[in-house]
């Protein structure tokens, strides 16, 4: 699936590459298929990853993201299609000759070696002078900020420090590609936030093409140049993080990335009607060729605003949660049609501008921001003018709203691809 790559301000400012001679490559995955016996994990997947890009594979457990990463690494076979590093097809090249760096979830550093010895381990198998090996190790210890721990054994390091050692060891050999498989999942919440910034910073300093696997949406949004959202072995959308969040290509992406409240609505031209008494003009944000009739509208909690005139959608506050910078409300709407089986219907109120903090039982009237909300077909595809529908599948999502498919589909709307990790 092809997608443009809009510009994006990174979470951590990028600096020039510290490498004297960059060996980073672009990655081209072309119509690859992965099967285990009769079960298809990845049915037919294509993606292009740019040289020096931080590219994240994001999706729920079993979506095939780790399987794809292992195919790029050479740990898993490829039943069909091909993978190229720049112009070189690597299908038949064994993993140890692909010049990749790998960072695993469990760090996989040697417990009997010091930090310095762990970092320099991979250089033992490279034809480099002693001075060059020393220079690289010292440069990498400084880059990942573990110079002061270089003589310690791993047992004396925190989880975050151990992950920095694993990252340094992977990068010091100057790989063409850096592959990272859920590297922060074993860390506590505070360390995860610290380390995702560090990883982003280091990757931009080194300038290496990086493929990162995670199921953590916030993590992916913060560190990535682009994100591929996967489900059942199929890429649903590829785009910059802010586009993925603001203009999801289908209902699955809208509900997997962040929280979206899903309403039954009716579209006629640019008029989007929520109830007989409340409609908004979409002002050209919906495609001109969008058919009139039943639609599904996704409204994120921050895309509501309180009505001071009593106009809008009446709702009763069910639960109030104070979260510091904002207050989160769970709501029960009295007239608006909601799609079934949603975990919660939420509205977020900025504490800096809030005049009243509402309590359970209070009634509020909410209006939506037509420039921000997303309108979908009842089958789950976007109808927004500035969004890309892409070659996605419309599945029976976890909220049960989509009913037809495009790829590997069955009559009941499920997909023929099996689950992959």
Model description:
Helices cover 19% and strands 29% of the residues. The protein folds into two domains: 218 residues, Rossmann fold, CATH 3.40.50; 126 residues, OB fold (Dihydrolipoamide Acetyltransferase, E2P), CATH 2.40.50.140. The longest helix is centred in the middle third of the chain and has 18 residues. The N terminus and C terminus are likely disordered. It has 421 residues and is of the alpha+beta class. Helix 3 packs antiparallel against helix 4 and helix 4 packs parallel to helix 5. The protein is built from eight helices and 20 strands. Strand 9 and strand 10 form a beta hairpin. The strands form four sheets. Strands 6-7-8-3-9-10 form a six-stranded mixed β-sheet, sandwiched between helices.
Characteristics of this structure?
OB fold (Dihydrolipoamide Acetyltransferase, E2P), single chain, 5-stranded antiparallel sheet, disordered C terminus, 421 residues, Rossmann fold, alpha+beta
Instruction: Provide the CATH top-level class of the largest domain.
Output: Alpha Beta
What is the CATH architecture annotation of the largest domain? 3-Layer(aba) Sandwich
In N-to-C order, the SSE pattern is: EEEHEEEHHHEHEHEEHHEEEEEEEEEE
Question: How confident is the prediction overall: mean pLDDT?
Answer: 86
State the share of residues found in helices, binned by percent.
10-25%
**CA distance, first residue to last residue:** 20 Å
In terms of DSSP E residues, the strand content is 25-35%
By DSSP, the count of extended strands is 20
Question: Strands across the major sheet, in which order?
Answer: 6-7-8-3-9-10
Q: How would you sum up the global shape? A: globular
* Tally of separate helices: 8
Number of separate domains? 2
Q: Compute the CA-based radius of gyration.
A: 24 Å
Please outline the major beta sheet: 6 strands, mixed
